[in-house]
Amino acid sequence: MAPRPPKQKKRPAPMRTKIHRKILTFFVENQGSIDTPRGVSTWVNEGLGPVRAALEDLVKDGFLKAHRTSSTVAYSSALDDKGSKRLSARLKKR
Amino acid sequence: MASTLIHDRELFDCLRRHPGMRRLRGSFDFLLGHPVWWLSFKTGDGQKAFRGFLEASHEIWHDPRLRGQFAHQVFGAVKKRSRDLKPYVFRAPSNVAGWCMPLVHGERVIGYFGVSGIPKDTRAEVLSLLACHVELIVESCSKAEELKRLSATVRPRAIALSTVHTVHRIINSTLNLDELISRLAHLTAQVLRSNRCAIYLVEKPKTGVESLPGRPPKRPSALLCRAMVGYPRNRDKRERIAFGSAAEGRVAKTARTILRRKFLCLPLIDEDVIGVITVSIKKDGKEFTHFDQEILTTLAEEAVIAIKNAQLYEEQKKVTLGTIQSLAVILGTRVNNVVSPEAILRVALKVAEELHLGEEDTQALHYATLLKDTAKIGIPDEILRKPTKLTGEEYQLLRDHPIKGAKIVQSFESLQPVVPFILYSREKYDGSGYPKGLKGEGIPIGARILAVISAFEAIVMGRPYRDRASLEEALAELLKNAGTQFDPKVVEVFVRVVKREGSAKLFKETV
Lengths: 94, 511
Prior knowledge:
heterodimer, A: alpha+beta, 3-stranded antiparallel sheet, 49% helix, B: alpha+beta, Beta-Lactamase, Hypothetical protein af1432, 3 domains, 6-stranded antiparallel sheet, 4-stranded antiparallel sheet, 19 helices, 52% helix, elongated
């Protein structure tokens, strides 16, 4: 039997751009918030297009939850309390 | 008082960091003969604190002379004229003077700004100009601080409002009650950061003899769980709670909110209590507060409207379906049907499911299957039951019945999606059908299914002038015409569904 390849460590959470970090900071500070891309773009003071793309990235990475309906999509934090605290510490470090 | 002090301190810190202060020194230092520049918070804390503040001025001016050299002299002057709100010149040792400007915000002194060691003959206009500059900087800092405080107060509320608005949009985007309540439970748990959320609706009393005239209507007496989020898996998801028992039952009975440290339960009130919503155990382990109660009340108010809308929509759907079923029964009595409409309906819905039709198309097909023969109401019995072949005129009358049927159905607003299904149910896949000669995918999917169902029904039922075919013969006939008369995909699924169900199960009522 061929030896199993070593398990690759998952890449650390992508805080790729300033927009990603701003969105994460917003949801860490307002954990109960649920908002549309337009709403989030207002709160983080960034353009709608890049915010929309960043929100989808963060959903894929498991940081946010998407609530999709036929007319809109809303996003909220997908992290529990511990996860939020850890993320908050990482964001502050950066 | 404390908050004012904090505000003064914030304002002073803003002033100390303001780049205009350094620029000020750059502009006036030469004019004032290179004095010692200093800035201090208010003197209320005594000389020691004042000295500390003065020494901290070094951070702005980088002047080594600040370290203790003028502290005693400046403190004495400021203390003596602590009530003055206007700039003043004070005496200093040797041949120089000092100038102090109380930093006034509103009517309060938040600190002092000054220069020590200016020539005694310094012109008043220069000092006045300096005071104007400082005043402008204080004003700018005051505005910035005010804006910061306003944002800190308004922003969280605006975010909460936006959240409530988004929840409103999400829950109102569906009229399916189960989906709506499930969404609502998830969103409520998310907004309140609670581990658990459950929604119970009042169980409607079964109508029976009590609802007869003269007797009082039966009152609801229990709650039925409609959604649970975050509860253990073994918990009964269709839990029933009697009015008055358990916290949820008490809330439903009294219509009063229960707020406990780890539990918050609110009634959903329209005209009467229609249900309750509960959240328990916050994710951060903190207690539920009155602010949480306020948020949940707002969400509950939104929820009630959405739930009532969905309930009304469901009731309207039931009424429509009931009317259609009655019409189908009336139509059924006119033709000697061999296959029961229920069996045909079951097959139609299974085909729709296997072809992954959307909710709207499936519902339209449901209605269309029941209403496909509506226009037969206008065809005389002699033609419908004629034992011999039809004449050209009679055939034309039968041929037109999908068009007439569509016209009848068209008059019902809620049945608009059904119209194309009935209208084009006589179209053929190769384009040789009627009324428009549509071809292939151009024919609506519901009409393509309906065409197969109608043909199957006709073959199995037989006609007064044609013998009934067996199930196998009927399916073989459909397969023979797949690709020409019928959509081959639909035929394939239809045959599969019929075979899987088996003739005994599908047609036992009649065949």
